[in-house]
Amino acid sequence: MKQIYFLISAMFIGTIANAQVKMPVQAAKDVQASGVYLNTEAPVQAARAVFWSNDCNVDNCSDWSFDNGAYEVGAPWTDIDINFECTTDGPSGPYNQWAGGSGDGSAASSMNSTTSSNGTIMVDSDLFGADANYDANWVENCWFQTVAPIDCSDHPYVSISLETRYRCWDNGGSDDSEKCLIEVSRDGINWPAIDNWDEASGYVIYGTDTVASRKEVFPGYGTSDTSDNPSLLEFDITDAAGGQAEVYVRFRWSGTWGYSWEIDDIQVYDTPANDTRIDNYLSYTDYERSGYYEYGAWPLSQIPADLAAAAKVYNVGFEDQTNVTLDVTAAGTTAYSTPITLSYATADTLSAAYMPTALGPVTVDYVLTADAADENPGNNMASQSFEVTDLSWGRDEGTPINAAPGDGTDDYIAVSLFDIVDDVVIYAIDVAVMDGSETGTSIITHLFDGFDDNFLAEQYGGILQSTDEFDIIAGNTNAVGVPVTTWYTLVFDEPYLASAGDWLGAGFEHYGGSNVQYGESKYTQDNTAFIYGPFGSGSAYDWYYTNEVPMVRLNLNPNAVNTISEETANTTGFEMFPSFPNPTNGVTRVQFRLDRAADVNFDVIDITGKIVYTLDMGTQAPGYNSISVDASEFAAGVYTYTLSVDGERSTDRLMVK
Question: Are residues 326 and 265 in the same domain?
Answer without folding.
Answer: no
